[in-house]
Amino acid sequence: MAKDTKERILAAALDLFSRNGYAGTNIRELAASLGLVKSGLYKHFSSKEEIWNTLLDEMIAYYDEHFGSPEHLPPAPDSTEGLVEMTMRMVDFTVHDEKIIKTRRLLTIEQFRDERARDLATKHFLTGLRDMFAPIFAEMMDWGILRRDDPEVLALAYTAPISALIRLCDREPEKTEDAMRQIEAFSRHFVKTYGRKSDLQK
User: Fold this and answer.
1) What is the set of domains in the chain, with CATH numbers?
2) Torsion angle defined by CA atoms of residues 56, 58, 59 and 64, in that order, rounded to the nearest 10 degrees
3) Segment 172-183, tens digit of pLDDT
4) Taking the model in full, what pTM does it have?
5) CA angle 39, 42, 46 (to 5 degrees)
C-alpha cells in the first residue's frame, strides 16, 4: 500500500513539475491532488527535494529500460532497413509515451535551475543519443553495412536532426505525424548516403 502511494505521489509530481516547474509546485497542492494532507505526504518523502531526486532516478531507469542508453545499448541492426526500423520504433515510443513526454518537458523547464536536470537534459537531448548510436554504427561498419567513417561524428550527424524534430513534437503536438514522416525520410536518406551498396540492394 505504501509503495502504491509513493508511486502515485511520483506520478502526480511528474505531472505538476512538467506543467508548473519545481518552484511553481508546492507540497500542499501536490498532496491535495492526491486527496492527502501535507503531513500524509511527508510519511513517504521527507521533502520536495527528495521527491524531485527520486522522480529523476525513476525516470532515468524507465528511459533506460524502454528506450536504451549508452549503458544499455539495443542490439545493432544487421541491415540498413533494420536501422530505419529500429529508429522509428524508438521515435514512436519517445513521442507517444506520456512519462517520457512529461520528463522532457520537466528537463526543459528545470535545466537552467537544477544542475542535475541540466546534465540529464544534455544527455537525453544530445550526448546520450550520440553515445548510444556511435558503437552501433561502429559495429555496422565492421559488418560492412555502413561505409567506414568516424562513428561518433556520424552518430551526431544522425541523431541531432532527429532530436530536433522530437522537440518539435513536444512544442507542437499537432505536428507529430509530419515530424515522424520527416524522421523516416531523413533516416532513409542517411542509409542511402552511408550504406554499402551491397546491403542497399538486398
Assistant:
1) 1-54 (1.10.10.60), 67-196 (1.10.357.10)
2) 130
3) 999 999 999 999
4) 0.85
5) 145
